[in-house]
Design brief:
Blueprint: E1 2-5, E2 8-12, E3 16-23, H1 27-34, E4 44-47, E5 50-56, E6 59-65, H2 69-80, E7 84-88, E8 94-99, H3 103-108, E9 125-130, E10 133-141, E11 144-149, H4 151-170
Antiparallel strand pairs: 1-2, 2-8, 3-6, 3-7, 4-5, 5-6, 8-11, 9-10, 10-11
Helix pairs in contact: 1-2
């Protein structure tokens, strides 16, 4: 964990299961077979211990503890049938957790969207660019957001955010 200031903590989260669910057929039937509703566009939700994130049209990512990979994939494949596909993306993203009351301020430094908007709250998803890097943001709570980024960019984003957090603390 990196604690650049009392108002922010940056943590590279432990590896997790990350499975993409793509639906090109009967989405309602898939949800019925799976037994849970999928979040609407630009939204995320907890379904049991899984974090379900709308990723793009007809695609969701499901994150859960790493030891749950085999069961999650089997459950989803059974629910999807011929209406879509399930793909393991567990190594495709690094998840950086940003917590503390200044997380919104941090995202505004080098970002190209309005993280200060009160409408960007728990359960919201945003795809954006921060410090020239593609990032997907999932607001977990009023004081926490998860950033999903390609592993090759994670160190650069952490470096940028550590420097930016130090500037926030000095201000």
């Amino acid at each position: 964990m990196i604690e650049p200031s009392a108002g922010l903590q940056l943590t590279v989260a432990a590896p997790q299961t990350l499975v993409a669910l793509e639906i090109w057929g009967d989405g309602a039937a898939v949800q019925n077979r799976w037994g849970a509703a999928l979040p609407a566009p630009c939204r995320s939700a907890w379904v049991g211990e899984q974090r379900v994130i709308w990723w793009e049209p007809n695609t969701w990512l499901l994150g859960a503890p790493l030891e749950a990979l085999a069961q999650n994939e089997a459950d989803l494949r059974g629910a999807v049938g011929a209406d879509g596909a399930v793909t393991d993306l567990s190594g495709a993203f690094t998840r950086i957790c940003v917590t503390g009351p200044l997380w919104r301020d941090l995202l505004m430094i080098g970002g190209v969207f309005d993280a200060e908007s009160p409408g960007f709250g728990p359960g919201c998803i945003a795809g954006t660019v921060i410090h020239h890097l593609p990032v997907r943001l999932d607001v977990i709570s009023d004081d926490a957001v998860n950033a999903y980024i390609a592993p090759s960019y994670a160190e650069d984003l952490l470096h940028h955010w550590t420097r930016a957090a130090a500037r926030l603390q000095a201000a």
